[in-house]
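Forwarding the complex inputs:
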Amino acid sequence: MRRVLAWSVAVAIGIFAILGLWSAATDSGPVSAEDTAREVSQSLRCPTCAGESIADSSALLSDAMRRTVEQQVRQGRSAHEIQAWFAERYGDEVLLAPPHTGYGWLLWAAPVALVGAAVVVLLVRGGPANRRRWTGLLALAATTLVGVWLLVPRAGAPVPQGMQQEGAGPVDTLPILRDAVDHAPGNAGLRLAFAGALEEAGKDAEAVKAYAAATRLRPLDPDTRYRHAFALVRSGEPRAAREVLEESLRVRQDHAPSLLLLGALVHGEDPDRASALLQQFVQLAPEHPAADQVTAFLEGGLGQMPAEVLP
Amino acid sequence: MRRGKASVRTMAATAIGVLVLAGCQHGADDGPRVAPPLSGLDLQGNPQDIAELAGEVVVVNAWASWCGPCRDEMPVLEAAQDAHGDDGLHVLGINTRDRTDAAQDLVAETGVSFPSVVDTEGTLAVEWGISGMPQTFVVDRDGTIAAHRFGAVDQDWIDSVIVPLVHGTSVSEEEEP
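Prediction (whole assembly, two chains):
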């Protein structure tokens, strides 16, 4: 038994040493406000997407949430404070990692508690051979869990005040993309990236032109056509958007996002057609984040269009 | 063997106890949310600030010109303010992610008189925890959010939620989206 304990302690020390070295190697000192904002954005779930963080989501709500995160980081709030701020507004579901409060504690503590419970059961019920075999392994597992558990809260460190002015604001990719499009005007992918950057910068009219160009290059691609239509709605041209979507559905009748957007657009003028389009959308994409809300909308229990339906 | 069974029972009881305690703690954290700040220029360029309406009942409505149900509910909100404005009801809009000219056209078309703070970037909407449109919050005279409506409001909702608040009957309604 003494030998097993000695081995367990040695293994524990070894794991902590490795974790410490790893931590030191990955710790590049004080981080910039931009890095912190990115890190916090990666920890927040886009409320209208399927399992995407707001850092990775292209939804407009995520864009607004990213801007809010950047503002709060510049104000000197810590990651934990910003996460708590969002959780208060959107519920704990907005946190991609469970919170260290309420039921969230259980998710963090449960693995450690389970290992502890298993040790107790083994000591009480296991035979001598079992004890020797499992105690070392359990010590290893417990140490790893505790090590990970201790390392995770590092994201909550406050932003160093002296670094908050540095690197604030996203890199301006527009000029780079504009040059790239000028050099390769037939590249639809570049056109789409350029259009997305224009949208991000609030240049809706220019974005529409860029999407129109991409649509001319990819006339049969429903995704490109959908993004073109989306930009048209944002720039106040819903009729033009409808024409683009009608054409898209002639090319491909089962493009769910187009059905959803067109259904939302024609709702005011032609409720019957809107219902048909939205029902088709729900049938085709029952797992879509908006499907439940659209169903409720169709059943008359919810007069609200989901945020991602319209720009 | 008997000792082992007793330990398992003890651990199970402990686990249940922890669950119950965690549930109690979670419940204790809930409660009425203090209304976030809301200030900025409205569609006519005039400054608006919800803080200046402290002590009144304020209906905060997030809308955009491209949102069909928003268009439908605007006359309902306007009528509510007309009917209960003298008793301390105010409607304050958040015009979110919209083109100002399109929003102004809708205001002119529907004839609503309540102001709307312009929220071009959508950050005010995030401040209020808005994930879809329309959404409406009711801020009571104590400055807390007394009700939250997902989707377009209708006259029934005005009568059952707003009117009692304006006339002093407490109400608490938090809908699920």
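Chain A has two domains: 2-163, 174-298.
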